[in-house]
From TrEMBL, chain A:
[4Fe-4S] cluster binds at C280, C359, C375, C415. This is DNA primase large subunit. One of its GO terms (molecular function) is 4 iron, 4 sulfur cluster binding. InterPro entries: DNA_primase_C, DNA_primase_lsu_euk, DNA_primase_lsu_euk/arc.
From TrEMBL, chain B:
It comes from Arabidopsis arenosa (Sand rock-cress). This is DNA primase. Keywords: DNA replication, DNA-directed RNA polymerase, Metal-binding, Nucleotidyltransferase, Primosome, Transcription, Transferase. It comes from the Eukaryota. GO terms for molecular function: DNA-directed RNA polymerase activity; metal ion binding. The lineage of its organism: Eukaryota, Viridiplantae, Streptophyta, Embryophyta, Tracheophyta. Pfam families: DNA_primase_S. GO terms for biological process: DNA replication, synthesis of primer.
C-alpha cells in the first residue's frame, strides 16, 4: 500500500473478482490518498467501537448481527462495490498500524476485528459463505463411510444436547484438530474423539474464524516490528502523528487513573460504599467486612475497582490487612496477599498498572464455589438478587423493571435501571463500567450537597 | 528459584536455598532472571511459550456436599470424591482430547493436581486452555445461587453421558449414599429439594419425608429409600416440563461431578507445586497417583517427611530404585511408577519429536538445493 498526497487515485489491480468479505491476507498493491488514510480508519474505528459496546452490553449473536449490519451501513457502505471493498481493506490495514503498538491495543483490535468478521460472515448467503470457506483453503478432511456411521449415534447426542429435538445429523462433518475450534469445544458443541473435533458443515465457519484470528495475530507482530524498526521514523512527519492520534481518540476512558470525583480515603470508605458503589462491588465489600476474606476473583474485582476510585496503595494495603488479619493473621497476610495488592498497583512482577474490570469482563466471569465476584444481575438467583435490590432501597415496581431486564439477559441495562431508581435521575449513557457507575453517582451526590464532604 | 538449566544447577540451588517447596511455572521466551532488561522495549518480549496443561482439584470446594469433614480436612469417606474426579477427567483427556502423557499427583493435603505433558498440550494458547477448561465446566453454582448444575438440551453431551453412566451414577447410588447419607436429615434433603424446579413435587416429597422422620431404618437405608422415592416421583411426572427430565442427572452431577479450579488451567503462567514436594503443613509427600488404580490410593497412608527421616536413620533406605529392594522403601513404589509409567514414555516421545523435526529440516534444505 502506497500513501500519496495527490487527489487522483489509481487502483492498480482488479478487485471485481474478490468476494465482498475480504480475508485481509495481504496488503493490496494500491495507492491511497492521505485524507482517505485517516478518514477510512476513523470510519472503521466507529464500527469497531460499536461492536465493542454491543458485546459489553451482552447482546446476543442475533442482535449483534443486526448491530453490525447497521454500523456497516452507516460508516462503511459506499454505492460502488469495488470502492467499498477498497475502503474495507485500506481501513483494516491502517488500523493494523495503529493497533500493533502495544499488547493491550493488539488484544482489543484482534477481538473486535474477529467479532466484526464473524457477524459479517453470518449475514452472508450460504453460497457466499461456502465460497469464503473455500477461498481460505482449510485443509479439513470430510468424514465419510464407516467412520461417519460409527459416530452417528454420538453426533446425534451432540445435536440433541444443543436443543435439537430429533437425533438427525448433518450431511457433512469435518475432522478438525480440537485446538482450532476453541469456541465449539468450550461450549461442548462438537463431538471430540482422540484430539479431533467433528465439526458439522454448518459450524465450519469456526475454522475460518480461528485461522483469520491466527493470521491476524501473526501479522500484528510483524507489523509491529516494521513499525518500530522503520515506519515510525520514516513517517515521523506524515503518518506517525495520524497513527498515534488514532489509537487514543476513540477508546474511551479505562479508569486506570482516578479523576476528580474519584479520590476516596480509608475513613470514608464504608460510607461511600453504601452511597456510590454498584451492587457488584457493594456485595463484595459487605462480604469482605462480614467474612474477613474474599477468594482470588473477588479480591481482583474489588481491589482494582478501589484502585480506580482513588484508594492509594498504602490505604489499600491497610484496608485489606485490617480485614484479612482477622481471619488469617498478619504474617500470612504479608506473605500471601500483600504481594498481589502491590502487584495490582504495578509495584511487583511485570509492573503493569492493571486496569479495573469493565462490566463486560465481570459479566463473562465465572464465579464458582465460595466466590462472591461476578455480576449480581447475572450470577445471583432471583431471590438473592431481589433481596439485595431491596437493601439498596428499590421499590417493588422498580425492582420488577430491573428483574424484567435480568430475565432478558440485559444485565447492564438492569444495572442502569437500578442506578436510575437509586438516584432518581436518568442515565442516558448506560452503565458499562463499575467505576463509571461510581463517578456518575458521585457527580449527582456532590451536585446535591456542594459543600459537604463525601 | 528462577531459571534452572540442568540437573546439577538444580541440585546446587536446592542445597543452597533449602526451599520448603518448589513451584513449577512456564517456559518463557527469555530468561526470567533477565526479564527487566527486556522490559523497556515497548512490546512485551517476556512471554510464556510452553506450559503443561494443568488441573487443580481441591476437596474444600466440595464442602456443601460432604458431611464428614470440612475445610482442609479429608478422610476416607470424602476422598472418593477425588477418586471419581480423577476417573472422569483422566478418561476424557485420553479419549476426547487424545492426550497420553498425563500425571496425577496427590497435592499433599486436600486434593490432586494433574499435569498433561504432551507436546500439543504444552503449546496450547490461553484461549485454547480456556476452551478445554470450559469443556469440563458443568458446575455453575456460586454462593448466591441454589441451583448449582444446569444441564440443558434434550440429552447429555456424549462426554457427560459417558461420565454419568460409567462413573457418576454408580458412585452416587452406592458409595456416596453409604458414606454421606445425603437424604438422611431435613437439613440435607432440603438442599436437594431446592434443585427441583416444580413446587408441587417438592411439597409432595417433603410431606412423605417429614412423616417418616422417626422410622426405625438406619440413616443410610433412609437415605437410599428417599432417593428411590424421588426418582420414582420425577419419573411419573416426566412429561410435565423439560427441566424435570434432567433433574435426576442434575442432582447426581451436583454431588459428584469434578469441581476443578478452572482458573488454574486457563493461564499459562500459573504456578503449581512440583511432584514429590513435601506439603509444608501435613509433611506428606506429593506422590503420583495411578489413575488406573486410584481406588486403592489412601491419602492418609502417604509417607511423611518424618517417616522418611526415620527410614534413613534406620539405615534401610537405598536411593537406587533399580535395586530389587526398592519396593520395600517408603517411596520406592511411587518413584518406580513415576519413572516407568510417566517419565520414560514422555522422554521417548520428546526424543521422537526432536528427531522428526530435525529430519523435516534436513528434507527442507535438500528441497531448496534442488532448485
Amino acid at each position: 500500500m502506497e500513501v500519496i498526497r495527490s487527489q487522483k487515485r489509481t487502483v492498480s489491480n482488479d478487485v471485481v473478482s474478490t468476494p465482498t468479505l475480504p480475508l485481509y491476507l495481504t496488503a493490496p498493491p494500491m495507492e491511497v490518498r492521505l485524507e482517505e488514510f485517516e478518514l477510512f480508519a476513523i470510519d472503521r474505528l466507529r464500527v469497531l467501537k460499536g461492536v465493542s459496546d454491543g458485546l459489553a452490553r451482552g447482546r446476543n449473536p442475533n442482535e449483534m448481527d443486526d448491530l453490525v449490519e447497521t454500523l456497516w451501513k452507516e460508516h462503511m457502505r459506499l454505492s460502488d462495490v469495488s470502492e467499498m471493498i477498497n475502503k474495507d481493506i485500506i481501513s483494516h490495514f491502517v488500523l493494523r498500524l495503529v493497533y500493533c503498538r502495544s499488547d493491550e491495543l493488539k488484544k482489543w483490535f484482534l477481538s473486535m476485528e474477529t467479532a466484526l468478521f464473524r457477524h459479517r460472515f453470518r449475514l452472508k448467503k450460504i453460497e457466499e459463505q461456502r465460497a469464503i470457506v473455500g477461498e481460505f483453503g482449510l485443509p479439513y478432511k470430510a468424514v465419510i463411510g464407516a467412520e461417519l456411521e460409527s459416530l452417528k449415534e454420538r453426533l446425534g447426542l451432540v445435536a440433541r444436547s444443543l436443543g435439537q429435538i430429533s437425533s438427525d445429523v448433518e450431511n457433512i462433518y469435518y475432522k478438525v484438530p480440537f485446538e482450532e475450534v476453541p469456541d465449539l469445544v468450550a461450549g461442548r458443541r462438537v463431538l471430540l474423539q482422540k484430539g479431533y473435533a467433528f465439526v458439522a458443515g454448518s459450524q465450519a465457519s469456526h475454522g475460518v474464524y480461528f485461522n483469520l484470528k491466527h493470521n491476524l495475530y501473526s501479522a500484528l507482530i510483524l507489523t509491529n516490528r516494521k513499525w518500530t524498526t522503520t515506519i515510525r521514523e520514516r513517517e515521523k512527519d506524515r503518518l506517525t502523528p495520524i497513527v498515534e492520534a488514532l489509537s487514543t481518540s476513540y477508546l474511551g476512558p479505562d479508569y486506570t487513573q482516578s479523576n476528580e470525583y474519584a479520590d476516596i480515603s480509608l475513613k470514608d470508605i464504608d460510607q461511600v460504599s453504601k452511597s456510590s458503589f454498584p451492587l457488584c462491588m457493594r456485595h463484595l465489600f459487605e462480604k469482605l467486612r462480614e467474612d474477613h476474606h474474599l477468594k482470588h476473583g473477588g479480591r481482583m474485582q474489588l481491589g482494582l475497582f478501589l484502585k480506580g476510585v482513588g484508594l492509594k496503595l498504602d490505604d489499600a494495603l491497610a484496608f485489606w490487612r485490617e480485614e484479612f488479619t482477622k481471619k488469617v493473621g498478619s504474617e500470612r497476610f504479608d506473605k500471601e496477599y500483600a504481594y498481589a495488592i502491590r502487584h495490582n498497583y504495578g509495584k511487583e512482577g511485570k509492573r503493569t498498572d492493571y486496569t479495573p474490570y469493565a462490566c463486560s469482563k465481570i459479566i463473562t466471569s465465572a464465579p464458582g464455589a465460595g466466590d462472591h465476584h461476578g455480576c449480581p444481575y447475572r450470577h445471583f438467583s432471583e431471590d438473592n438478587l431481589k433481596a439485595a435490590l431491596s437493601r439498596m432501597g428499590l421499590s417493588s415496581r422498580g425492582m420488577e423493571d430491573v428483574m424484567d431486564k435480568v430475565r432478558n439477559k440485559h444485565y447492564q441495562l438492569a444495572c442502569t435501571l437500578t442506578f436510575e431508581a437509586v438516584y432518581g435521575t436518568s442515565c442516558d449513557t448506560g452503565i458499562n463500567h463499575p467505576n463509571q457507575y461510581f463517578e456518575e453517582s458521585q457527580k449527582i451526590l456532590k451536585s446535591k450537597t456542594p459543600t459537604a464532604p463525601v | 528459584m528462577g531459571n534452572i538449566l540442568n540437573a546439577s544447577v538444580m541440585e546446587d540451588a536446592i542445597k543452597s536455598n533449602f526451599p520448603y517447596k518448589i513451584d513449577i511455572g512456564a517456559v518463557y521466551s527469555v530468561d526470567p532472571d533477565k526479564r527487566h532488561a527486556y522490559a523497556h522495549s515497548g512490546t512485551n518480549l517476556f512471554t510464556p511459550v510452553e506450559r503443561e496443561l494443568v488441573f487443580d482439584i481441591d476437596i474444600t470446594d466440595y464442602d456443601d456436599v460432604r458431611y464428614c469433614c470440612s475445610g482442609a480436612d479429608v478422610c476416607s469417606k470424602c476422598w472418593p470424591l477425588m477418586t471419581v474426579a480423577i476417573k472422569v477427567i483422566d478418561t476424557s483427556l485420553r479419549e476426547d482430547f487424545g492426550f497420553k502423557h498425563i500425571l496425577w499427583v496427590f497435592s499433599g493435603r486436600r486434593g490432586v493436581h494433574c499435569w498433561v505433558c504432551d507436546a500439543k498440550a504444552r503449546r496450547l494458547t490461553n484461549e485454547q486452555r480456556s476452551a478445554v477448561a470450559e469443556y469440563f465446566r458443568v458446575y455453575k453454582g456460586n454462593e448466591n445461587n441454589a441451583k448449582k448444575v444446569d444441564l440443558m438440551g434434550h440429552s447429555l453431551h456424549p462426554f457427560l453421558a459417558r461420565s454419568y453412566v460409567d462413573f457418576l451414577k454408580n458412585f452416587f447410588e452406592d458409595e456416596l449414599q453409604a458414606t454421606q447419607s445425603i437424604f438422611s436429615s431435613k437439613e440435607k434433603y432440603e438442599k436437594i429439594l431446592g434443585m427441583i424446579t416444580d413446587e408441587d413435587i417438592q411439597a409432595d416429597l417433603r410431606g412423605k419425608w417429614e412423616n417418616s422422620a422417626r422410622s426405625s431404618l438406619s440413616e443410610e437405608a433412609t437415605s437410599r429409600l428417599r432417593w428411590e422415592q424421588l426418582k420414582k416421583t420425577l419419573q411419573s411426572k416426566k412429561n410435565k416440563a423439560l427441566s424435570l427430565r434432567t433433574c435426576v442427572e442434575e442432582i447426581v452431577f451436583t454431588f459428584t461431578y469434578p469441581r476443578i479450579d478452572l482458573e488454574v488451567s486457563k493461564q499459562m503462567n500459573h504456578l503449581l507445586k512440583a511432584p514429590f514436594c513435601v506439603h509444608p503443613k501435613t509433611g506428606r509427600v506429593c506422590v503420583p497417583i495411578d489413575p488406573n488404580n486410584c481406588d486403592e490410593f489412601d491419602p492418609l497412608a502417604v509417607p511423611t517427611l518424618s517417616q522418611l527421616i526415620e527410614e534413613i536413620n534406620s539405615g534401610g533406605l537405598r536411593m537406587d530404585v533399580d535395586d530389587d529392594d526398592s519396593d520395600r522403601s517408603l517411596l520406592g513404589k511411587s518413584i518406580k511408577f513415576f519413572r516407568s509409567s510417566f517419565l520414560e514414555p514422555l522422554l521417548k516421545s520428546c526424543k521422537e519429536e526432536i528427531e522428526t523435526s530435525y529430519k523435516a529440516k534436513i528434507a527442507k534444505t535438500k528441497d531448496s538445493f534442488s532448485w
